[in-house]
What we know:
The protein has helices spanning 48-65, 107-116, 119-126, 135-145, 158-167, 174-179, 193-199, 222-228, 242-249, 304-314, 316-325, 329-337, 378-400, 423-431, 444-456, 465-468, 479-511, and strands spanning 3-9, 13-19, 25-32, 44-45, 72-79, 86-88, 98-99, 154-156, 172-173, 184-185, 190-191, 210-211, 216-219, 235-241, 258-262, 266-272, 282-285, 294-300, 348-350, 368-370, 411-415, 435-437. By secondary structure, the chain is of the alpha/beta class. Helix 2 (107-116) packs across helix 4, helix 9 (242-249) packs across helix 15 and helix 10 (304-314) runs antiparallel to helix 13 (378-400). It is globular, with a radius of gyration of 22 Å. One of its GO terms (molecular function) is D-xylulokinase activity.
Amino acid sequence: MAYLIGVDIGTQGTKAVLINPAGKVLAHSYRGYDVETPKPSWAQQWPEPWEEATYATIKEVVEKSNVGAENIKGVAISSLYGGSGIPVDKDMKPLAPCLIWMDRRAEAEVKWVEENIDLDELFEVTGNSVNSYFGFTKILWMKNNLDIWDKIQYFLPPAPYLVYKLTGEVAVDYSSAGNIGGVFNLKERTWSKEMIEKLGIPLGFFPPRLVECTEIVGGITKEAAIKTGLKVDTPVICGGVDAPVATLGAGAFSEGNHVAMTGTSMCWGFITNKPNLSPKLVSMPHTIDSKEIIYTFGGAATAGAVVRWFRDVFGAQEMAAEESLGINAYTLLELKAKDVPAGSEGLLVLPYFMGERSPIWDSNARGTILGLSLFHNKAHLYKAFMEGVAYSLRHNMEMVAETDAVLDRETILVGGGSKSTIWPQIYADVTGRPVKIIKNDVEAPLGDALLAGLATGVIKDPGVITTWLDFEDTIEPNLENTKKYDQYYEQYKQVYLNLKENMMALNQIGKE
């Protein structure tokens, strides 16, 4: 038998699965870690925790599965949106932490780009606009604020960095390259010498070897073999950015297929062959047929994160019950919220707890709770937080109406949010679209395992993944709730516009 491993390096932890060629998961593993937030709106991670978690999870799935290392034919690695990537020196040693996707410190660099770069040209070349979310603005922040510029050999996104640690080979997959924004030509699928020169970043900082996510980068080294339990020279594949890999793992291949991945953040994306769709969305090459297909997405910076924040701050009672009774704290919160009417009886939450990405692209946006009265309780608040994230999903979906793309009617929902007992129905009701959920969803690692199979020839047709997936009954929208949510949604958009200047002022005062 030929077995495959998929590994996804997430923001809060790394997951790995080992599957057989029929797509059956024989073992899985998880290792968690933290995000460093040394200042408000800063978010960074050193690569060592990723590295340790990658070794540990691979080794654990090998041991749990009782599969001989000689029968493991390939391993693919995907990762979070790595922002700046990891600056490494000529010895490939990290010089600074990776400024990850949620880091918003590069506001001065954004302003500089807006004043010195033709934004229409930037969008025409890269398929993306400018914001402190994008990696190229974070790279400019490092140039302006850290004394490492002259020591840098490369900037490596997280997945390519881990592939290097496993193989000794330096390469960047197309999806990771495209997600940096600003420095990648989306139409030509190469580094943009023109934009890099205008931005004042040396071209040599970006590895010349660009690879498909279905291409073997190299083989496991002797050192990595000891740490992972894999055989020396086991093929390693750079799976790219986690959201398109999770979309692939959900069986989305065709024009208009769209998937919402709800983890710490929410990435809702769709498959298309149309470049440069909208500067309000983010585009990069897809993880299969990277030279032909584009993955375009919009997303909430804090989706699952705001619900977790609510649990941690207001859910002490539920967390204590989880500790003593073994009942999940989220389940207890949902039991109280499930009977709260649509709209939480006049409550509205803007889930902008770390600024916001698409479609408003506002680093100063902040979380807002509007409509509180003495009547409301914890259940109302918890449901309103879930509804706020669903409004954000709808807001991103609306951006597609301004383009030539056409979405399927159904939304596939993956990630932690899909496991909720009430959130999927809220998504369906708010968007007015049916929601499909995968049974026993393992998210991006399954897509990684598929990529490993395609790269090594164990799997011939990516479409086979659709035979691996089993869906729950489709969740249809409650049209009465949708009518009510239509009204709340209009207020959701208007409230942000009304408070935008206040949010900016409060953020500035907070920095003084």
